[in-house]
Amino acid sequence: MLKTGGSPGARGLFVLAAVLLLPPSWLNPADRGNDRPLVFARIVQKYGLYENYLHRFVDRPLLLDRTTGFTGDAHEVFTEASYRRQREILQAYGIDGFANLIQAKSYLDLHLRAWDLSERDLSPGIRNQFELSGHLKPEEIRDFLQVILARGRRSPTIARVDGKILITTYVADAKTPAEWAGILEPVRRAYPNEFAILLDLPSRQYLDMREYNRCGGLSNSTLEAWKSKFRSYLEVGDGLLFAAHHSMDTPEGHFIPEYYALLIDTMKSVLAEYAPRGKYLGLCAGNGYVNHFTGSTTHEDGTRVLRRQMELALAAKPSVIILPEWNEANEGNSIQPTMCNSFSTMRILRFYAQTMRGENPSPLPTDRLDIPNLVLSFPQTVELGERMDFEVLNIPDSSASGALKVEIHLEDLAGREIRKTSSATLELSRLEAATFSVPSEECSEFQSIRPSLHVVDAKGASRRFAAGFPGIRLVPNNKHHFKWVKLPLRDLLMPLTVSFGWADPSWRPGQEAILKFAFRFPEELASLELLENGVERWAQDPLHEFPDRESHAIFYGSWAGMDPATNVHMVFEIPGADFQFRPIYRADNVIAPSTWKRDGSRVILHARVNSVLREFYLVVPKAALASGVLNVESSGTRRSIPLGDLHRQGGFGWSMARGIFLRFERFDDLPNLPFPIHDSNVSGEIRLRPESASSLYEWRAISKSGKIFRSACLGLGSPVAEKPASTALPVWSETQGRPLLVQVDKAALKDFEYEFNGRGGDLLRTPASPEASGEIGGGATYAWPFSTSRSYPKEGERTAARWIEEAGTNGLSFDGRGNYVAFNRIFPTKAFTLAFEFKPMADKEQILFRNHNPYLPYLEIRIKNREIVLGSEDYYNVSTVIPTKLFVNIGDWSRLEVSYDLKALTVRVDGRAGRSFPFPYHPTRRLFQFGGCEFGGWGPQAAFYFEGSLKSFRVRDWPTPLP
Questions:
Q1: Is a pLDDT exceeding 90 seen at residue 151?
Q2: Which residues contact 60 (CB under 8 A, 6 or more apart)?
Q3: Which of 818, 822, 768 is nearest to 798 (CA)?
Q4: pLDDT of residue 21
Q5: Distance of alpha carbon 385 from alpha carbon 922, whole angstroms
Q6: For residues 942 and 599, what is the distance between their CA atoms, to the nearest angstrom?
Q7: Bridge-based pairing state of the strands 660-666 and 696-703
Q8: How far apart are CA 833 and CA 308, in angstroms?
Q9: Euclidean distance between CA atoms 215 and 262, whole angstroms
Q10: Does the pLDDT value for residue 855 go beyond 60?
Q11: Which residues pair with 427 in a beta bridge?
């Protein structure tokens, strides 16, 4: 048995069939208290239930419905239909309402519109609570607060504590206590004793996780610094709030409950000093944090993070608990039902809410009571060497007693059982979970593994649940997120009939494949999608919103630039072609209808440019590909490319004036989730051009009520295909705590070898993947290396290196003042080989390569006094510098190769026998976490940018030589 007090990553507490006994004593019926905290889910109105969430985020709203948004060219960030639907969903949770986060005037305006709607269309028990960001200007905080209070005085939906309007904050310590005193003093005069404001203090100057992880605790001086800070803010505010739910983890990314408990105890000890003044305590609870753009990730570990944080918060008896966040797609921590989480979060929070109110737990009205209220959770993707964890959670929903016996069986693509776990017992009356762990390196021969859950009830009856669970994708290296799926058995959509398969099983690479299908479900569907390797490729479209790919080609386009924001004149033109311009509406990156117009064969835009990615589709008749040309104009710069070339090679990019990078790619995936199907019987056939011979296909159906069906994975049937070649790859075994060699399919390894032929314009292309293309002078999008102008020298004249030809070979020339090539998430997370050919033309210290992201450490390669020097930084900000004693000549071409086998870094110059440097891998090092990387330089100091030429660049998922 294993209690959740431990930190699984740091302390090795994962054991097979460990049962987590989570509820503290107050959750038992006999120990319920009479008082309870208010609970609010933080919401930002920019994420609706209608937007295009595809191909950018790791998750999306489960109950997405485009009819709640816009049609045609109209676009509205906030819609009443979407917000009303979200309030209806929230009611099933049993919590108190939404915490409306205000980070700008535009946010306040949206929340005021939501407030209007909530008071016209009251939802029983739902309250509006408001949060103010500490990043606002002082006068903005003061003005926004007075707007809320003036209206709140007469509002029946405003949240109150002890009769006062409850105001919380977000990162309040972005302002000093003195600044808060200046903000609040005139407001208190105008609204005496009418509001209580809790100041959120998440700053890492007192969240000393590194000290805690390194030393196993905190020093007295650190704890005293915490207390001093708490007191300084309590002098001006009405209470303390801690809402950084994702900022308490081990170096490996696992939540540390002991750290949260220590923080809570310290806050309460200080608040006790202020007891006569009636100060309040606010805490948080949330799902894990999965921001795959930045690599800043707290593992969810199934439902463990949410449950453990909620229990610790409730045990402290605070006045309010904030749940970050209701609908934050970018950070993958949504409280609302999502594709990956299903209704698991709702079911868990509903149990807590009923228990807090002294009610007996009850099921959802639509639940099938013959199915146990269990949730099966496991990671979507597993990198070989990681533990493959499965959590089975029981959620009490009645007064029934008894026990369930559960175990996990694993099956291959053909449905053959390959292994099973031991069993564990769960008590029906308790919120408790069993966690099973399987070393993934033992399954390296499989591309995908599908779990099934076997349950034996108290009467000895056995049931198997498999339909609806997705396969787990096993990847050798280069995993880019840590998202789990959490699937309640009662939320699985069971089909009545299932039929799908290839019309011709003898597929060969380069050929088109025809997939026939027929499904019948007991409920009407909202959507039916086909995924290839986890990416949505096709969906049933009742409105035929996009033309058929047999007659039309779709090109994805986007632009971004360094901050600060600016407006430019931009034109797209395809002479003689009746093409469509289709903006992609997502939160924050809207191409507003008022900013563009169609003029014959041209689209004219007044384009907003900053680090926010603006995206669109060009839908072009295939007849235009033979002779059509795409012309692009931006700020007086004009470029052109034949459409046929763009379609054949897959991508093209331009580094334009004023720091703008514009790119186009052939788009073969699903452009947008269609409008609801409203049908339960669907059939047909699809023509596909598979990405590779190893592609895996999976069906996903979602009913209008939100139930999910996922099919078993289907590979490409090809009796003429040869058995894939395997190779030995070093992986880090979490189970054994050391590197191991495992056999993997060589075709599954990534090999990004870039083409130096200029055919991609300022897009440095690789045949391995269009998404892996490097941007010559780009990288200005969120979480890419140059997403802010603070990362670029003021004296830089041109971001893009120039194409040159030397001795019949194409290359890139860098000016040494600000030229670079930016890449996004191409670098392997474990073993790797990096190789490139370069010619330095200046005898100065300069950066060749840097892998990093906004929040995690890095690997860097420099030239210093003509010597190759490696640098790195670990989780604890400890820097390592490795002088290699390998030198290059200024003005001569050199080939540099850096390889890593999880034991040592090996460096070679010009093929000479390399030098190896001990560099043992450990998860706390986190040097090679996914993130952006660049060749040529990074940062505001122009002196360190590379001056010279580059003619080859390659990144591989394995060390050289192979073991």
A1: yes
A2: 53, 54, 329, 338, 339, 673
A3: 818
A4: 30
A5: 12
A6: 43
A7: unpaired
A8: 40
A9: 15
A10: no
A11: 403
